[in-house]
Design goal:
The chain is of the alpha+beta class. 31% of the residues lie in helices and 26% in strands.
Length: 221
């Protein structure tokens, strides 16, 4: 009997530890806003419309006049900015807690046109949850008591900048776990443990996505 109770207990613990992603509970009539999770190699980014940013958040968006979308990625300060980081910088990024950086890309056309060739998953997030997501990303900028963060340098693609960020990067707190924390701030649950690799992140986000109608071979924006 005791053995049976122990087996049931273990199953319950494992069920909680490996719980799958779940959508937030929200009012059925609450408006939603689109958010895009983008897989770029090992790295996961988050994008949304610049016009949807709530007032008072992300003043750095002023550095990207006229763009339709902004895409955000977080990572190791030196490795992310290096053109040829090499093995030793990769090892340092994995082992030692290190300063972090945000990479922000301004997108003038559609997300699918700008990130062609990459997997893109769209989530339709209730407006209240979207505000929490933007607040999370807002808090990821290190502004040093200034009104807005000053770019460190140009980014790695056209119309992008690197900014100083909050939080320490290491193997178990990487770009994909940052993206997972950002998405969970909306009320979504991505399950435990949080996704560590880009494949884990995208696999869980796919299960939360609302299927979108297709037009000319691309998902609607």
């Amino acid at each position: 009997m005791l053995k049976r109770i122990a087996q049931v207990f273990c199953l319950l613990v494992l069920g909680v530890a490996c719980a799958g992603p779940q959508k937030p509970v929200s009012a059925a009539d609450e408006a939603t806003l689109p958010v895009y999770v983008i897989g770029q190699g090992w790295h996961g980014g988050i994008a949304f419309r610049r016009a949807d940013i709530p007032p008072g958040l992300l003043p750095e968006s002023a550095d990207f006049p006229g763009v339709e979308y902004l895409e955000f990625g977080w990572g190791h300060r030196d490795y992310y900015q290096a053109r040829d980081p090499g093995f030793w910088l990769l090892l340092d990024a994995a082992i030692w807690p290190s300063p972090s950086v945000l990479h922000v890309v301004g997108v003038h056309d559609s997300i699918h046109q700008r990130f062609v060739g990459f997997e893109i998953v769209r989530l339709d997030i209730p407006r209240s949850g979207f505000a929490e997501l933007v607040a999370f990303i807002h808090a990821s900028f290190h502004r040093n008591d200034a009104a807005r963060a000053v770019p460190l340098r140009r980014g790695i693609v056209v119309n992008s900048f690197f900014y100083p960020a909050t939080g320490s990067f290491h193997l178990f707190n990487n770009c994909n776990t940052w993206a997972a924390h950002a998405l969970e701030s909306t009320g979504y649950s991505l399950g435990m443990p949080l996704p560590f690799t880009i494949n884990q992140l995208l696999e869980r986000v796919r299960r939360l996505a609302t299927p979108q109608p297709k037009e000319d071979g691309l998902q609607n924006q």
